[in-house]
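Sample A.
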Amino acid sequence: MIPLADRTIFDMEKRGDFPTRITLNSRNVAWDLAEVEAWIGAKKTSSERARRPFAA
């Protein structure tokens, strides 16, 4: 769903730039789908704002 390396996601989590993982057991983790979808939505919104030309 998110095409980023594990290390990149881990670093983003530490900075608070990605939803926090949920530990399922010693070898598996997951993320709350609603939080990830909200993160994607926020990225889309900021990306769309960055592409808009400035009003003259």
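Sample B, a different protein:
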Amino acid sequence: MEEITTPQALTNLIRTLSAAGAEVSSKKVIVGFDGFVDEIIRPIRSREASGPTYFSTITQFSSFTADAAGKSADIEIEAQEVRFGGNAPLMANGLARLGMECVCIGTLGYPSINPAFEQMAPGCCRISFADPGTCHAFEFHDGKLMFARLDSLAQDLWQQLCVRVDPARLREEYQEADLIAFADWSNLTQATTLWRNVKVHYLDTLPEDRKKQLRVFFDLADPSRRSTDDLAALAHLLNEFAQTYDSTLGLNEHEARTLYAAWGLKTHPQHGGETLVDIGRSLRQHCQVTRLVIHPIDQSLVITEGSILHKTGKKIAEPCISTGGGDHYNAGFCYGLLAGYPLEECLVLAMAVSACYVSSGRTPDRSEVLTFLHEWLQQERQRGQTSSNNHY
């Protein structure tokens, strides 16, 4: 059952996050294996002397383009920024800004790292073995449309990783890691092979006590383009990881519904008949991960073998940016998980980090997240007082 994030829950998280010290900052995370250079674009609906008016929603934009069928159209676009992107770099940057030691292994440029990735937090170590993909991200208030070129990501990335990065260096990094995040399965053509080889050659060779302590996190990105065979192989791979490691699969609502249909788990004849809790239960059971997280825009839930938590978030009406919101959510959740927070606080922290990012367009540090949490707490208290007054 969906629960409002109460003032008490926010107060608890503020207290916990404020007290975070050396023990949390000593935790080490490795995130891989993609990398993009993103051009953030706003499509222009009209232009007046005072300036442009942008398409505010995907619905507006799609209606305009649909009306152009058979007639053609000319759409002006405004490139607002070029920045580093990719699920792994954005998540790694989010964790580093929160104060954790982080290593990003990805397609950041080869033989030299692309200058866009110089924007990443100084505390984030970068290891690159291939050139980045490129993405034109069309931003709207209700989401984003991402047009990507994946030429460099369609190669045999495992072979490139083996040849271009010293295996001894990688072995040392993995031996020291507390959490390993595997990101962007959908856009890496050979991701299943890459992930399995990392598991076999670097994780499965760890001492047994390290295996028991290690956490793994999976972020797939939009899997709708992948074949049925690819998705079946993914489910098998997730099961392989789950047999040995504490594992978390993180999905947005679209990704969750896509997997639910692709894996043949639908029980209702019409799409949309199932609740997110129904979908989450079935997905977790199918791939056997320790916990499954689903995060729509204004809420999130986590499902384990014995519990379900479903919390509301703070929706940002007019986001500054949406590209990367999910990656920052994942950073917040993994921070809480490694810090030993209760799952309720992991969810609230994840939503706060993501909302803080999309509202400002910048990756927040811990103090900025705390400021955001205090503002959220104040709003919830005011809402509670208003509700109480209306009751009487």
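Observation for Sample B: The mean pLDDT is 93.
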